[in-house]
Amino acid sequence: MTDNTQESLFSRLFSEPGTVYTRLLEDIARGVFVSGDRLVTTALAQRYATSINPVREALKQLQGEGLVSFQRNSGARVMHFEYTTMRDVYELLQLLEPYLLDWFIEEHTEAPLARLEALLEEMKALTTKDVDRFKELDTLFHWEMYRHHYNRDVVDLWKRQRLRLLALHANMPISGSRIQTAIDEHEAIIAPLRQRDKTAARAALVQHIHSGGDYWSRLVRSHR
Amino acid sequence: MTDNTQESLFSRLFSEPGTVYTRLLEDIARGVFVSGDRLVTTALAQRYATSINPVREALKQLQGEGLVSFQRNSGARVMHFEYTTMRDVYELLQLLEPYLLDWFIEEHTEAPLARLEALLEEMKALTTKDVDRFKELDTLFHWEMYRHHYNRDVVDLWKRQRLRLLALHANMPISGSRIQTAIDEHEAIIAPLRQRDKTAARAALVQHIHSGGDYWSRLVRSHR
DNA sequence: CAGTCATAAATTATGTGCAATCATTGTAGA
DNA sequence: TCTACAATGATTGCACATAATTTATGACTG
Question: Residue B78: what are its φ and ψ, rounded to 5°?
């Protein structure tokens, strides 16, 4: 039994939990606030038991990260996510992830591979109802591969895009078959990793991202 | 005679000039504040003739964009730029620019091509002393190709990375031979654009970015 | 005498409350 | 029904209080 279940996704991805910034990020990623929602400073100040200024600063930071948008004299909203947004994010991930993977293929030791397989095992053991946990595991799987990359800028960038994706998917269902496909795809990535077969691993990753983007975009269209 | 000289770089890249955010960005990109400099809120408030709060918010936004770093209870500093930072930025640009270029190759009309050539002409006409103007023209050249791309996220991302480069290079000289090489490389990009030869244009662009990264990294090392 | 450490003062960051401006909503009148 | 106007609510910017850090000063030690 691994202790993956004990640690939450956000405690791993963020160094300063409990801050207004992190809590807001969590609420957006979890779907408490969804695309287009107004983010009223006074209300948020109450929610996080603080005053207006810290809230404003967190919002500005999130604006810089592309998760919140401002309109002059009209306050902040959760960035408007629509079909094109998702396409944009997936296309960016399609650029970043193969690049990040390359380093991992060359430099990884045995330990992270074992962790990847532990994550995979937990995915397989999940019942289809633990959708949120599956999303977390999926994210952690990729995180495990990229987190030690030397290019911290790109790693942070990847993190942000991944969070936007989580926010986009927060209130959407996942079919059992999609989960199964994702598990298979992750397995198809691990296999060439062992042999440090760069082209095969890249191909599997590209396929995995493409497949994900495809699934969600179809889901978004049908949810209109 | 074109009127490129009349408009500044920043008025083209940013929609809201005059704000604290934009002015801070300009000052960082221009090298007024350099890598590691403390950004004291009270001093900035005086400089921009405003109070502390707007300054803090601009700093937080810039933190989100990766240009400013915060230390708890110790305020903000210009993000620490060193050799590895430059390498990271160039590697990211190497991912983004070919992607952005693809769209331009397929969709461009005659007008932007003409503007590219006008920019090129102005570069050629420059004396070697107008180093700042050359950097602006170089940026505007790429901007002209990418600015209409459908993926606004990536375009904004490119803009930020380009600004970080400007900040990194702000107080460094450019040799006359480097300017000439850059001009040649731009020409090598325009030629295949006309014929919508994607592979050739991409190759020329990749070469151009690589060449730039190479030049600056050597310069940084010798400036120790 | 030089260097280091501890202590004190000044400076700065952070958080709170408050006025003014702007946008939005609702209402009354044409 | 549409327009003009008033009232409400929120954003924005500002001044202040508190807490932390950085800097400066002086004493002590090798």
Answer: -65, 135
Q: Does pTM top 0.85 for this prediction?
A: yes
Has residue A105 been placed in a domain? yes
Tens-binned pLDDT, residue by residue, of chain A (224 aa): 444 444 567 777 777 778 899 999 999 988 899 989 999 999 999 999 999 999 999 999 999 998 999 999 999 999 988 888 889 999 999 999 999 999 999 999 999 999 999 999 999 998 777 888 899 999 999 999 999 999 999 999 999 999 888 888 888 888 889 999 999 999 999 999 999 999 999 999 999 999 999 998 888 777 65
CB-CB under 8 Å, B151 with A66: no
- Residue B14 CA to residue B163 CA, distance in Å, equals 12
Q: Are residues A112 and A41 in the same domain?
A: no
Whether the beta carbon of B199 falls within 7 A of nucleic chain C: the reply is no
Among chain B residues 65-94, those with CB within 7 Å of any atom of strand D: 71-74
Identify whether residues B47 and B122 lie together within a single domain.
no
Q: Nearest-CA neighbor of A223 among A82, A127, A95?
A: A82
Q: Which nucleotide is nearest to B71 (CA to C1')?
A: C13
